[in-house]
Amino acid sequence: MTLTPAERDRVALLRREARKDRHEILRRDGHMCVFCHGRRNLQDHHILALENGGDNRHEWRCTLDPRCHHFFDAIELPPTPQVRKSITIEQQVTAQKILLDLVQKNIQRERERETAKSS
């Protein structure tokens, strides 16, 4: 995918902003990968890649270890050819279901926090 200069600037800005609250995402997820529960080399994953129109909303981010991050990147739209070749269709479907469940849980958690703040 080729980005325009304006799109590249947008992605660069969002990446800089994401670094500022990365630790909040890790804390929310219990400092472990939400998929395998690993605790090494944790990364902040944007469920919808910034290059594909994603943003920094917390409900659209999760903590992954590098191996799981590679796995989940394979279901990005569009996945890179080398990533697409490295996992099966069944793994892609499983990952999509897990991500959907994670997003729903995170949205619910954010709503509960907002309700608690306004009370």
Categorize the overall geometry.
Answer: globular
What's the story with the biggest beta sheet?
2 strands, antiparallel
Could you tell me how far the N terminus lies from the C terminus, measured between alpha carbons in angstroms?
Answer: 45 Å
Tally the helices: what do you get?
Answer: 5
Q: What integer value in Å does the Rg equal?
A: 15 Å
Annotation, overall tally of beta strands? 2
Average of the residue pLDDT scores: 80
Structural class: mainly alpha
Strand content: 5-15%
What is the total domain count? 1
Helix percentage = 55-70%
Low-confidence stretches: none
- The strand order across the widest sheet is 1-2
SSE ordering = HHEEHHH
